[in-house]
Sequence to fold (335 residues):
Amino acid sequence: MGSGQPVIQSSLTMDEVWDLYRRDLEEIESHIRHNLNAEAPLINEIAAHILEGGGKRIRPLLLSLCYRLTGSIPKNDLVLGSLIEFIHTATLLHDDVLDEAALRRGRPTARRIWGNRASILAGDYLYSRAMHHIAAFKNHEVNDAMALACKRLAEGEILQLCANRQPLLSESEYLRIVEYKTGALLAAACKVGGLMGGVSPLQAEELYQFGLNLGIAFQLADDWLDYTANEKNLGKTLGQDLMQGMVTLPLIHVLPCLPADDQRTLVAKIERNAVEEGDLLQLTAHMHQHGSLGYTRTRSREYIETALLNLATFEDSTAKRALIVVADYMVNRDC
Ligand code: FPP
Ligand code: MG
Fold:
Protein backbone atom coordinates (compact mmCIF):
# COMPACT_ATOMS: atom_id res chain seq x y z
CA MET A 1 0.00 0.00 0.00
CA GLY A 2 1.29 3.47 -0.87
CA SER A 3 1.84 5.97 1.92
CA GLY A 4 0.29 9.44 1.94
CA GLN A 5 -3.31 10.38 1.63
CA PRO A 6 -6.16 7.99 2.27
CA VAL A 7 -8.42 6.97 -0.59
CA ILE A 8 -10.91 9.75 -1.31
CA GLN A 9 -14.49 9.40 -2.48
CA SER A 10 -15.53 11.06 -5.70
CA SER A 11 -18.88 12.74 -6.21
CA LEU A 12 -18.37 12.91 -10.00
CA THR A 13 -20.48 10.72 -12.25
CA MET A 14 -19.11 8.82 -15.24
CA ASP A 15 -21.05 11.11 -17.59
CA GLU A 16 -19.35 14.11 -15.99
CA VAL A 17 -15.98 12.42 -16.47
CA TRP A 18 -16.68 11.86 -20.19
CA ASP A 19 -17.74 15.51 -20.37
CA LEU A 20 -14.77 16.96 -18.47
CA TYR A 21 -12.26 15.11 -20.61
CA ARG A 22 -14.16 15.33 -23.90
CA ARG A 23 -11.44 17.50 -25.47
CA ASP A 24 -8.75 14.90 -24.76
CA LEU A 25 -10.98 12.12 -26.06
CA GLU A 26 -11.83 14.07 -29.21
CA GLU A 27 -8.14 14.63 -29.84
CA ILE A 28 -7.49 10.92 -29.39
CA GLU A 29 -10.40 10.12 -31.71
CA SER A 30 -8.98 12.35 -34.41
CA HIS A 31 -5.59 10.60 -34.07
CA ILE A 32 -7.37 7.25 -34.46
CA ARG A 33 -9.03 8.40 -37.69
CA HIS A 34 -5.89 10.08 -39.01
CA ASN A 35 -3.71 7.04 -38.35
CA LEU A 36 -6.02 4.59 -40.08
CA ASN A 37 -4.07 5.04 -43.25
CA ALA A 38 -2.69 1.65 -44.26
CA GLU A 39 -1.81 1.20 -47.92
CA ALA A 40 -4.07 -1.85 -48.07
CA PRO A 41 -7.68 -0.54 -47.95
CA LEU A 42 -8.90 -3.82 -46.43
CA ILE A 43 -6.90 -3.12 -43.27
CA ASN A 44 -8.57 0.28 -42.87
CA GLU A 45 -11.98 -1.26 -43.47
CA ILE A 46 -11.50 -3.98 -40.87
CA ALA A 47 -9.91 -1.64 -38.35
CA ALA A 48 -12.68 0.94 -38.82
CA HIS A 49 -15.34 -1.75 -38.32
CA ILE A 50 -14.02 -2.61 -34.88
CA LEU A 51 -12.68 0.83 -33.88
CA GLU A 52 -16.01 2.45 -34.69
CA GLY A 53 -17.98 -0.34 -33.04
CA GLY A 54 -18.79 1.46 -29.80
CA GLY A 55 -15.62 0.91 -27.75
CA LYS A 56 -15.50 3.14 -24.70
CA ARG A 57 -11.86 4.22 -25.10
CA ILE A 58 -11.16 3.33 -21.49
CA ARG A 59 -7.42 2.86 -22.05
CA PRO A 60 -6.94 6.27 -23.74
CA LEU A 61 -9.06 7.88 -21.02
CA LEU A 62 -6.90 6.30 -18.30
CA LEU A 63 -3.77 7.47 -20.09
CA SER A 64 -5.07 11.02 -20.25
CA LEU A 65 -6.18 11.03 -16.58
CA CYS A 66 -2.86 9.60 -15.36
CA TYR A 67 -1.08 12.21 -17.50
CA ARG A 68 -3.04 14.95 -15.75
CA LEU A 69 -2.64 13.55 -12.22
CA THR A 70 0.27 15.84 -11.37
CA GLY A 71 -1.26 18.85 -13.08
CA SER A 72 0.57 18.45 -16.42
CA ILE A 73 -1.26 19.41 -19.61
CA PRO A 74 -0.84 17.02 -22.58
CA LYS A 75 1.14 18.53 -25.44
CA ASN A 76 0.36 16.80 -28.69
CA ASP A 77 1.26 13.49 -27.13
CA LEU A 78 -2.24 12.11 -26.58
CA VAL A 79 -1.59 10.28 -29.82
CA LEU A 80 -0.19 7.65 -27.44
CA GLY A 81 -3.75 7.04 -26.26
CA SER A 82 -4.82 6.30 -29.83
CA LEU A 83 -1.86 3.93 -30.26
CA ILE A 84 -2.79 2.01 -27.13
CA GLU A 85 -6.32 1.76 -28.55
CA PHE A 86 -4.80 0.36 -31.77
CA ILE A 87 -3.00 -2.31 -29.74
CA HIS A 88 -6.16 -3.09 -27.80
CA THR A 89 -8.06 -3.38 -31.09
CA ALA A 90 -5.39 -5.73 -32.45
CA THR A 91 -5.84 -7.97 -29.43
CA LEU A 92 -9.62 -8.04 -29.92
CA LEU A 93 -9.27 -8.99 -33.60
CA HIS A 94 -6.97 -11.83 -32.60
CA ASP A 95 -9.05 -12.80 -29.61
CA ASP A 96 -12.22 -13.16 -31.65
CA VAL A 97 -10.39 -15.55 -33.97
CA LEU A 98 -9.08 -17.58 -31.04
CA ASP A 99 -12.52 -17.67 -29.39
CA GLU A 100 -14.35 -18.21 -32.71
CA ALA A 101 -16.60 -15.37 -31.56
CA ALA A 102 -19.64 -14.35 -33.59
CA LEU A 103 -20.46 -11.05 -31.89
CA ARG A 104 -18.50 -8.19 -30.39
CA ARG A 105 -20.28 -5.18 -28.95
CA GLY A 106 -23.50 -6.41 -30.50
CA ARG A 107 -22.12 -6.49 -34.03
CA PRO A 108 -20.75 -9.33 -36.16
CA THR A 109 -17.07 -9.86 -35.48
CA ALA A 110 -14.55 -8.97 -38.17
CA ARG A 111 -13.75 -12.66 -38.59
CA ARG A 112 -17.37 -13.33 -39.54
CA ILE A 113 -17.34 -10.62 -42.18
CA TRP A 114 -13.81 -10.86 -43.60
CA GLY A 115 -12.62 -14.22 -42.26
CA ASN A 116 -9.93 -15.30 -39.81
CA ARG A 117 -6.94 -14.66 -42.02
CA ALA A 118 -7.78 -11.04 -42.79
CA SER A 119 -8.68 -10.42 -39.12
CA ILE A 120 -5.32 -11.73 -37.91
CA LEU A 121 -3.40 -9.70 -40.45
CA ALA A 122 -5.32 -6.51 -39.73
CA GLY A 123 -4.53 -7.08 -36.03
CA ASP A 124 -0.84 -7.59 -36.86
CA TYR A 125 -0.86 -4.35 -38.82
CA LEU A 126 -2.51 -2.32 -36.03
CA TYR A 127 -0.09 -3.74 -33.48
CA SER A 128 3.04 -3.03 -35.55
CA ARG A 129 1.75 0.37 -36.69
CA ALA A 130 1.31 1.35 -33.06
CA MET A 131 4.71 0.05 -31.93
CA HIS A 132 6.45 1.82 -34.83
CA HIS A 133 4.83 5.13 -33.91
CA ILE A 134 5.54 4.65 -30.18
CA ALA A 135 9.22 4.02 -30.97
CA ALA A 136 9.36 7.45 -32.65
CA PHE A 137 8.86 9.05 -29.22
CA LYS A 138 12.37 7.79 -28.37
CA ASN A 139 11.31 7.43 -24.75
CA HIS A 140 12.92 4.30 -23.38
CA GLU A 141 10.53 3.90 -20.43
CA VAL A 142 7.47 4.28 -22.66
CA ASN A 143 8.86 1.77 -25.18
CA ASP A 144 9.70 -0.62 -22.39
CA ALA A 145 6.22 -0.37 -20.83
CA MET A 146 4.50 -0.97 -24.16
CA ALA A 147 6.76 -3.83 -25.23
CA LEU A 148 6.30 -5.52 -21.84
CA ALA A 149 2.51 -5.16 -22.10
CA CYS A 150 2.48 -6.80 -25.54
CA LYS A 151 4.70 -9.64 -24.35
CA ARG A 152 2.40 -10.21 -21.37
CA LEU A 153 -0.72 -10.12 -23.59
CA ALA A 154 0.64 -12.88 -25.76
CA GLU A 155 1.83 -14.89 -22.73
CA GLY A 156 -1.56 -14.51 -21.09
CA GLU A 157 -3.35 -15.77 -24.17
CA ILE A 158 -1.02 -18.76 -24.53
CA LEU A 159 -1.46 -19.64 -20.85
CA GLN A 160 -5.21 -19.38 -21.39
CA LEU A 161 -5.00 -21.60 -24.46
CA CYS A 162 -3.12 -24.24 -22.45
CA ALA A 163 -5.75 -23.97 -19.72
CA ASN A 164 -8.60 -24.43 -22.18
CA ARG A 165 -10.86 -27.33 -21.20
CA GLN A 166 -8.83 -27.75 -17.98
CA PRO A 167 -11.56 -27.12 -15.40
CA LEU A 168 -9.29 -28.03 -12.50
CA LEU A 169 -7.23 -24.87 -13.03
CA SER A 170 -6.48 -23.19 -9.69
CA GLU A 171 -7.63 -19.70 -8.79
CA SER A 172 -4.05 -18.42 -8.63
CA GLU A 173 -3.20 -19.88 -12.05
CA TYR A 174 -6.33 -18.24 -13.38
CA LEU A 175 -5.48 -14.86 -11.83
CA ARG A 176 -2.05 -14.97 -13.47
CA ILE A 177 -3.73 -15.38 -16.86
CA VAL A 178 -6.06 -12.46 -16.14
CA GLU A 179 -3.21 -10.27 -14.93
CA TYR A 180 -1.36 -10.86 -18.18
CA LYS A 181 -4.15 -10.89 -20.74
CA THR A 182 -6.16 -7.93 -19.38
CA GLY A 183 -4.15 -6.21 -16.65
CA ALA A 184 -0.95 -5.65 -18.58
CA LEU A 185 -2.27 -3.23 -21.22
CA LEU A 186 -4.32 -1.18 -18.75
CA ALA A 187 -1.25 -1.03 -16.50
CA ALA A 188 0.84 0.23 -19.41
CA ALA A 189 -1.79 2.84 -20.34
CA CYS A 190 -1.72 4.23 -16.80
CA LYS A 191 2.05 4.12 -16.47
CA VAL A 192 2.67 5.70 -19.89
CA GLY A 193 0.19 8.50 -19.10
CA GLY A 194 2.01 9.14 -15.83
CA LEU A 195 5.44 9.06 -17.47
CA MET A 196 4.36 11.58 -20.11
CA GLY A 197 2.99 13.80 -17.33
CA GLY A 198 6.31 13.62 -15.48
CA VAL A 199 5.50 11.50 -12.41
CA SER A 200 8.34 10.15 -10.23
CA PRO A 201 9.59 6.58 -10.85
CA LEU A 202 7.81 5.48 -7.65
CA GLN A 203 4.55 7.02 -8.80
CA ALA A 204 4.97 5.46 -12.25
CA GLU A 205 5.14 2.09 -10.51
CA GLU A 206 2.04 2.90 -8.42
CA LEU A 207 0.18 3.80 -11.62
CA TYR A 208 1.32 0.53 -13.19
CA GLN A 209 -0.08 -1.37 -10.18
CA PHE A 210 -3.25 0.73 -10.29
CA GLY A 211 -3.86 -0.27 -13.92
CA LEU A 212 -2.98 -3.89 -13.21
CA ASN A 213 -5.47 -4.16 -10.34
CA LEU A 214 -8.07 -2.33 -12.38
CA GLY A 215 -7.54 -4.76 -15.25
CA ILE A 216 -7.95 -7.82 -13.04
CA ALA A 217 -11.12 -6.32 -11.53
CA PHE A 218 -12.43 -5.55 -15.01
CA GLN A 219 -11.81 -9.08 -16.30
CA LEU A 220 -13.46 -10.64 -13.24
CA ALA A 221 -16.49 -8.42 -13.91
CA ASP A 222 -16.39 -9.65 -17.53
CA ASP A 223 -16.37 -13.27 -16.32
CA TRP A 224 -19.27 -12.63 -14.00
CA LEU A 225 -21.24 -10.86 -16.75
CA ASP A 226 -20.70 -13.80 -19.10
CA TYR A 227 -22.97 -15.86 -16.82
CA THR A 228 -25.39 -13.18 -15.70
CA ALA A 229 -25.76 -10.24 -18.08
CA ASN A 230 -28.64 -9.32 -20.30
CA GLU A 231 -27.44 -10.64 -23.69
CA LYS A 232 -28.66 -7.51 -25.49
CA ASN A 233 -26.69 -5.19 -23.19
CA LEU A 234 -23.65 -7.47 -23.21
CA GLY A 235 -23.51 -7.44 -27.00
CA LYS A 236 -22.24 -10.99 -27.17
CA THR A 237 -23.55 -14.49 -26.63
CA LEU A 238 -24.17 -15.37 -22.98
CA GLY A 239 -22.36 -18.38 -21.51
CA GLN A 240 -19.80 -18.24 -24.29
CA ASP A 241 -16.89 -18.81 -21.89
CA LEU A 242 -18.15 -22.23 -20.79
CA MET A 243 -19.15 -23.27 -24.30
CA GLN A 244 -15.63 -22.37 -25.48
CA GLY A 245 -14.09 -24.41 -22.65
CA MET A 246 -12.82 -21.19 -21.07
CA VAL A 247 -12.34 -21.72 -17.37
CA THR A 248 -13.11 -18.55 -15.39
CA LEU A 249 -13.51 -17.70 -11.72
CA PRO A 250 -17.25 -18.53 -11.30
CA LEU A 251 -16.55 -22.05 -12.62
CA ILE A 252 -13.39 -22.48 -10.52
CA HIS A 253 -15.39 -21.48 -7.45
CA VAL A 254 -18.45 -23.65 -8.07
CA LEU A 255 -16.75 -26.91 -9.03
CA PRO A 256 -15.67 -27.99 -5.53
CA CYS A 257 -19.19 -27.16 -4.25
CA LEU A 258 -20.85 -29.73 -6.54
CA PRO A 259 -21.61 -33.31 -5.41
CA ALA A 260 -18.69 -35.56 -6.45
CA ASP A 261 -20.66 -37.32 -9.22
CA ASP A 262 -21.92 -34.06 -10.76
CA GLN A 263 -18.43 -32.64 -10.53
CA ARG A 264 -16.89 -35.63 -12.34
CA THR A 265 -19.56 -35.52 -15.07
CA LEU A 266 -19.15 -31.80 -15.66
CA VAL A 267 -15.33 -31.96 -15.70
CA ALA A 268 -15.49 -34.78 -18.26
CA LYS A 269 -17.95 -32.85 -20.43
CA ILE A 270 -15.78 -29.73 -20.39
CA GLU A 271 -12.68 -31.78 -21.21
CA ARG A 272 -14.47 -33.54 -24.09
CA ASN A 273 -16.07 -30.35 -25.42
CA ALA A 274 -19.49 -31.89 -24.82
CA VAL A 275 -21.16 -29.15 -22.78
CA GLU A 276 -24.75 -28.49 -23.84
CA GLU A 277 -27.22 -25.67 -23.30
CA GLY A 278 -28.89 -27.61 -20.45
CA ASP A 279 -25.54 -27.98 -18.65
CA LEU A 280 -25.02 -24.25 -18.87
CA LEU A 281 -28.42 -23.54 -17.32
CA GLN A 282 -27.85 -26.07 -14.56
CA LEU A 283 -24.37 -24.78 -13.85
CA THR A 284 -25.56 -21.17 -13.71
CA ALA A 285 -28.21 -22.23 -11.16
CA HIS A 286 -25.47 -23.91 -9.08
CA MET A 287 -23.36 -20.76 -9.33
CA HIS A 288 -26.24 -18.73 -7.90
CA GLN A 289 -26.88 -21.33 -5.20
CA HIS A 290 -23.25 -21.56 -4.05
CA GLY A 291 -22.49 -17.85 -4.27
CA SER A 292 -19.92 -18.26 -7.06
CA LEU A 293 -21.14 -15.22 -8.96
CA GLY A 294 -21.21 -13.15 -5.78
CA TYR A 295 -17.71 -14.40 -4.96
CA THR A 296 -16.43 -13.29 -8.37
CA ARG A 297 -18.02 -9.85 -7.92
CA THR A 298 -16.53 -9.52 -4.44
CA ARG A 299 -13.05 -10.46 -5.68
CA SER A 300 -13.46 -7.92 -8.48
CA ARG A 301 -14.38 -5.20 -5.97
CA GLU A 302 -11.42 -6.14 -3.77
CA TYR A 303 -9.07 -5.55 -6.69
CA ILE A 304 -10.69 -2.15 -7.22
CA GLU A 305 -10.14 -1.28 -3.57
CA THR A 306 -6.46 -2.21 -3.90
CA ALA A 307 -6.26 -0.16 -7.09
CA LEU A 308 -7.58 2.90 -5.26
CA LEU A 309 -4.88 2.47 -2.60
CA ASN A 310 -2.32 2.68 -5.41
CA LEU A 311 -3.48 6.27 -5.95
CA ALA A 312 -2.83 7.26 -2.34
CA THR A 313 0.47 9.02 -3.05
CA PHE A 314 -1.20 11.44 -5.46
CA GLU A 315 -2.61 14.77 -4.30
CA ASP A 316 -6.34 15.26 -4.54
CA SER A 317 -7.27 16.59 -8.01
CA THR A 318 -10.09 16.37 -10.53
CA ALA A 319 -8.07 13.81 -12.50
CA LYS A 320 -7.67 11.66 -9.37
CA ARG A 321 -11.39 11.89 -8.62
CA ALA A 322 -12.13 10.98 -12.23
CA LEU A 323 -9.85 7.92 -11.98
CA ILE A 324 -11.82 6.75 -8.95
CA VAL A 325 -15.07 7.09 -10.92
CA VAL A 326 -13.63 5.19 -13.89
CA ALA A 327 -12.43 2.40 -11.59
CA ASP A 328 -15.92 2.05 -10.12
CA TYR A 329 -17.52 2.18 -13.57
CA MET A 330 -15.30 -0.63 -14.82
CA VAL A 331 -16.68 -3.12 -12.32
CA ASN A 332 -20.22 -1.84 -11.93
CA ARG A 333 -21.22 -2.04 -15.57
CA ASP A 334 -23.85 -4.19 -17.24
CA CYS A 335 -22.01 -4.62 -20.54
C1 FPP B 1 -10.32 -10.69 -24.32
O1 FPP B 1 -10.53 -11.75 -23.45
C2 FPP B 1 -8.90 -10.72 -24.80
C3 FPP B 1 -7.88 -10.07 -24.27
C4 FPP B 1 -8.06 -9.20 -23.10
C5 FPP B 1 -6.46 -10.17 -24.76
C6 FPP B 1 -6.28 -10.83 -26.10
C7 FPP B 1 -4.82 -10.87 -26.45
C8 FPP B 1 -4.30 -11.54 -27.49
C9 FPP B 1 -5.15 -12.33 -28.41
C10 FPP B 1 -2.81 -11.50 -27.72
C11 FPP B 1 -2.52 -10.65 -28.91
C12 FPP B 1 -1.27 -9.94 -28.69
C13 FPP B 1 -0.88 -8.82 -29.39
C14 FPP B 1 0.34 -8.14 -28.97
C15 FPP B 1 -1.65 -8.27 -30.54
P1 FPP B 1 -11.90 -12.52 -23.41
O2 FPP B 1 -12.02 -13.44 -24.57
O3 FPP B 1 -12.01 -13.11 -22.06
O4 FPP B 1 -12.93 -11.31 -23.46
P2 FPP B 1 -14.04 -10.95 -24.53
O5 FPP B 1 -15.30 -11.36 -23.83
O6 FPP B 1 -13.94 -9.47 -24.69
O7 FPP B 1 -13.79 -11.69 -25.79
MG1 MG C 1 -12.94 -13.38 -26.33
